[in-house]
Design goal:
DHBP synthase, 18% strand, binds magnesium ion, Rossmann fold, four-stranded parallel beta sheet, binds adenosine monophosphate, alpha/beta, ten-stranded mixed beta sheet, 12 helices
Length: 360
């Protein structure tokens, strides 16, 4: 199969969207499960297919800044400047919702999250269907977000079994996602920008783009009466395997090993180790050594497997994180040790997703 959707497939998908059906499509962040944002019944199908809690609002995707006026009542000047600087791209801004937008999209809120995706296929789909597309990630609620078409299919396979013609899901390929983590979500009110969900675009980059505005991260803004992002309270990004987050700057290797071995008793499960090399590699080696030692001591085999997935840097880790979580599940890992990257740039968003995958 071709790695990228053809013009004809994109036209068919646009027809499906206009007919109120669902389309899985690639964006530069993760794959989305989209529907016509103006059609409340179509949007309700997204929630049903994902098993998504109805209080978790969706991001509405539009082609360009000019099309925002169809979904938002107005565009504050700081929001316009941010979109001018970062769009199309992985930035979502929460704006006052247009009164005609169905409240299924916003989960009843009077604000709407808006993004202008950069991926060629997403742009072509938006151009062909000529309507805003509401789309969360194309996975069953709670699971890691898909960064390849195969991951989206695997996660949604039950939902994509068609019961009626309207339940059919159209899938568009666009290759592996370039960013691999969801967009940065920020609310904008005059003079103040609050990052509700960290993403590829970091707080400092937003500050540079709007030097006269105050940019807060949700954690810092907590005291300052932060606007809430309903999605953050739900479990997210979880593979079947238990995930343990390890901060190699704050926790010794010995302490990590005893944490794992206590939890897993004699630790007989296959362990996955993911992180940036060479730190992740030496942690995997330490697990392998500990497994071998304990089998030698007890005389009871076999030695559990240790599977290592090593990233070159933070960006590479961001691209691979969700795919690795899903792959390690398939490989039968009972436990995944995710080594936290340094808290800078996209590292902050990675730390956020890993903490959630670990159930924090
Ligand atoms: P996803 O599930 O990846 O599509 O994430 C969408 C994120 O955007 C969730 O964390 C939502 O809570 C957040 N979001 C969407 N709409 C709004 C809104 N109107 N106000 C605040 N957060 C929103
Ligand atoms: Mg999601």
């Amino acid at each position: 199969m071709k790695a990228t959707a053809t013009a004809e497939q994109i036209r068919d998908a646009a027809r499906a969207i206009r007919a109120g059906r669902l389309v899985v499509f690639p964006t530069e962040t993760v794959y989305g499960l989209g529907a016509d944002a103006r059609n409340g019944d179509a949007v309700a199908r997204i929630f049903a297919a994902k098993g998504r809690p109805s209080d978790n609002p969706l991001i509405v995707h539009v082609r360009s800044i000019d099309e925002i006026d169809g979904v938002a009542e107005h565009l504050p000047s700081a929001a316009r400047r941010l979109f001018e600087r970062f769009s199309p791209g992985p930035l979502t801004l929460v704006l006052p919702a247009h009164r005609a937008l169905p409240r299924t999209v916003t989960a009843g809120l009077d604000t709407v999250a808006v993004r202008i995706p950069r991926h060629r296929v997403a742009q072509a789909l938006l151009a062909a269907c000529r309507c805003p597309i509401a789309a969360p990630s194309a996975n069953r609620s709670g699971e890691p977000s898909p960064t390849t078409l195969a991951m989206a299919r695997a996660s949604l396979w039950r939902a994509s079994e068609r019961r009626t013609a309207d339940d059919e899901i159209t899938f568009l390929d666009g290759g592996p996602c370039e960013v691999g983590l969801e967009s940065t979500v920020a609310s904008v009110s005059e003079g103040r920008i609050v990052i509700l969900r960290p993403g590829f675009i970091a707080a400092d980059e937003l500050r540079l783009a709007v030097p006269d505005a105050e940019v807060l991260e949700a954690i810092d803004a907590a005291a300052a009466d932060r606007p809430s992002s309903p999605g953050l309270k739900h479990g997210h990004y979880r593979p079947r395997a238990a995930v343990i987050a390890h901060d190699n700057e704050g926790e010794s290797l010995e302490s990590l090993l005893s944490r794992v071995f206590e939890r897993e008793r004699a630790a007989k499960v296959t362990v996955g180790v993911i992180g940036i090399g060479p730190v992740a590699g030496s942690i995997a080696d330490a697990f392998a050594q500990r497994f071998t030692d304990s089998v030698v001591d007890s005389g009871v085999g076999p030695v559990p497997r240790v599977i290592l997935r090593e990233a070159a840097d933070e960006r590479d880790y961001a691209r691979e994180l969700y795919r690795w979580l899903v792959e390690l599940d398939v490989e039968g890992a009972g436990l995944i040790v995710a080594v936290l990257p340094p808290d800078r740039g996209v590292g902050r968003a990675l730390r956020d997703r890993i903490a959630r995958a670990a159930g924090a």
